[in-house]
Amino acid sequence: MQKIRENLRNLKKYEKIGYFYLILVIIVSLIFLTIKKIYCFDIWWHLATGKLILSKHIIPHKDYFSYTFEHKKWIDSLWLFQVIIYKIYQIGKYNGLIIFKVIIIALSTFVLIKTFIENRLPKDLALIISLLVLWASSFRFNVRPHILSFLYISIFWMLLLRIKNKENILKENLILIIVYILWVNTHGSFIIGLGLSTFFLLEISLKYRNLTIQEAIKEKDLKRYLGITIILILCTLINPYGIDLIKFVLFSHTGNDATKYIAEWLPLKPINLVTFKLNKLLFLQLLIIGIIGSLLTNKKYIIKQKEKLIWILWIAGLLYLSIKHSRFIGLLTFGSAPLFIIFSESLKINKSILLKYKVISIILISIFLIQNINSPKTRASWGFGIKWENYPKDIAEYIKKNNLPNNIFNQYGIGGFLIWKLYPKYKVFIDGRTPSLYTPNFYWEYRMIEEYPRLAWSKADKKYNFKTIVTNNKKLASYLIKEKNYNLLGFDDNYYLLSTEKKIRIIKIYRPNIKIDELKNKKEELKELIEELIYVSKNFPESAKALNILGSIYIEKDPKKALQYFLEALKRRKYDYNVMTNIGITYINLKNYKQAYKYLKKSLDYNNKNLTTLKYIIRTCYFLKKYKEGLKYAKIYFDQRIDYSDPRDYEYMGLLLYENNKFKKAIDYFKRALFLEKKKDYIANTLYNIGNCYLAIGDTKGAKKYYLEVLKINPKHKLTKKALKELL
To answer: Is there a domain that residue 544 lies in?
Structure first.
């Protein structure tokens, strides 16, 4: 008996440790998933709109920011969110916006946990489900209006469940109405909130399905949900646009061609829900499996209370929205997780099953958390501030400073950023308000201009009279310079700035599709190109691209000078794996293989499929005698480059195979190098290496044959002479 008591005490002790560990993991997950640099495009026009509302004391009913849709009808369903974030920006700048996001996600998670515990779900299970929700919805943790929807839907679940279980519900009703009015004016997903209230009403209505309408309406719980649902429907009209807002939310995004090209409107492939991989989607899969499991394990209760089955339609509807448009994944997770409460109301949860589920969940989430925290890609995006490399900050400053002419043609994603930086002096061609402002036909027109300039540019230019261009499209930039006499004024890491302006310095030699090797023998042009790149690096001070190109010019003839440019570029772009690779190659040219390995390895941490990086780390591993590691990289490289014509790659693969005692395979790769090689010195070395392989497998005749072939090409080849002497 004493042993049983001790075991129970130990079990409770471990349960407490597990419980506190889960709380710790939730806190760490919240910090890790939410404190990320701002990188989305839409935040900028949201800030600009908030500024407009507060400075002009108007809620926009027409467009102010583009010259293409100027004064056209615009229903800004997000206006209240925009006011909130602009006020936060005024107080705390960009870091204030990130803190705001952290608080909203933390509150959403807290309300969810509180809802579970209030409805008698075991605390451990409540924490595990909330962790699944956090990770599954983290795709959508941006400073965008939809994050408020996570909080609103969590509050709705909590209050609507309370209304079911409490006698005095005045407080809950008032909070629900206030939250709903806020929701209506911050994000179009308020329809989901109204839908949730309607589902509670439907469940209660089905409960009294055997009664007449007159009898059913007398029931307290039915009257409660009917009353609150009617009030919410009426509250939908408490917005600056009235019934037009409802029409906009329900119909403006349906059957829209433009949404096929916007990332968040793309569908989630159903196959992704049934293929299990250790990624964030796994947590969505586990959440859905858990909900279905709680339904199946509670069949007896569900059979008795068939009205509960209505909630299958709820999760099916949210799942359908998420499969159709991936932007709804966050709402799916926060909106469906409380179904554990609905489907487990009478379920006596087996403690041993719960313990196993808890242990598995803790291990899985811990592995995933550690794996992600240690990821270099995570380190590049984690923290406060802005990922400025996503935005043409230098270009916007240059436009403003040099008073470049209107009208601007801009790439779709950066329209909001240009609004934030240049409005009211400049208005944009297009921004992220598709399809809420710009029509599908206009978005199609924009795509034609970007992708098929030869067909569409002249007509569009005649219509809009473009004077300044900001685009990341090499094809478009090259066409405009060559065919339409636009002047290249500069560039940053992603975008090109072109204009009809002729009074400021024009970049004449550099072109988006330039090949540096072709200028090596053109001294005057190369000299002018270097001057241009120095000019661009000074006038676009946060861009690394010009410095990276300067380094590439000197990488062979003056690697020390090249290294200076590359290291300066890396200061500007701390996580640029292309610059890291170039530094590695430069160190190879300086025969400093340890430093070369360091930078090439770091580059692969950020992009492990970069072929150029793989190509040079293979060589570096050979020189550092890291033969096994080199062979590992070589296999990855050749798996991606099945057919490739650089004999050097085959040569180093052969050398690595030789050092790993795989002599027959090495012969195959040396013979491939031999087949492609043109330079006599390299042919001689490759023949010598093949001879060594034959010697290693005991085929002295084969070895002698290849050694003699070497001496025909280079009679003074010392290593071959020595090998033949030893052989004879």
So the answer is: no
pLDDT digits (tens, 9 = 90+) for 617-647: 999 999 999 999 999 999 999 888 766 778 8
* 13 pLDDT above the threshold of 90: no
Q: Does residue 137 sit within a domain? A: yes
Is 230's pLDDT higher than 90? yes
- Vertex 165 angle, CA 163 and 169, to 5°: 35
Q: Is-contact 335 191, C-beta < 8 A?
A: no
Each residue of 514-557: pLDDT tens digit?
888 888 788 889 999 999 999 999 999 999 999 999 999 999 88
From 340, 361, 380, the end of a domain falls on 380
Half-sphere exposure of 727 (CA within 13 A, CB side): 22
Model confidence, pTM: 0.88
CA atoms within 13 A on the CB side of 310: 16
Residue pointed to by tokens 């065919």:
483
- Residue 155's SS3 state is helix
Q: Which residues pair with 386 in a beta bridge?
A: 38
- Supply the DSSP symbol for 470: E
**Sign of the dihedral defined by the CA atoms of residues 202, 206, 207, 210, in that order:** positive
DSSP-derived 3-state class of residue 670: helix
Whether 492 is in a domain gets the answer no
| Residue 349: strand, helix, or coil | coil
Closest CA to 47 of 112, 92, 106: 92
Domain C-terminal end among 341, 365, 380: 380
Three-state SS at 469: strand
CATH classification at residue 679: 1.25.40.10
Is residue 312 a part of any domain in this protein? yes
Q: Using omega within 30 degrees of 0 as the cis cutoff, is the peptide bond preceding 440 cis?
A: no
Residue 371: predicted pLDDT? 74
Contact yes or no for 284/333 (Cβ under 8 A): yes
Q: How far apart are the first and last CA of the chain?
A: 86
Domain range for 656 is: 643-728
* Per-residue confidence (pLDDT) for residue 2, from 0 to 100: 55
* Number of Cβ atoms within 10 Å of the Cβ of 725: 8
Angle at 455 between CA 449 and CA 460, to 5 degrees: 50
Q: 599, 633, 689: which is closest to 641 by C-alpha?
A: 633
Specify the number of domains making up the chain. Answer: 2
Number of H helices, E strands in the chain: 34, 4
User: What does the alpha-carbon distance between residue 78 and residue 45 come to, in Å, rounded to a whole number?
Assistant: 11
Beta bridge partners of 62: 73
Which amino acid is residue 639, in one-letter code? Answer: D
Strand 468-471 to strand 408-410: parallel, antiparallel, or no bridges (unpaired)? parallel
Q: CA 169 to CA 224: how far, in whole Å?
A: 9
Q: How far is CA 395 from CA 37, 102, 410, in A?
A: 21, 31, 12
Which residues in 363-398 are b (16+ Cβ under 10 Å) and which e? ebbeebbeebeeeeeeebebeeebebbbbbbbbbbb
CA distance 252 to 188: 11
Strand-strand pairing, 496-499 and 487-491: antiparallel
How far apart are the C-alpha atoms of 252 and 437, rounded to whole Å? 9
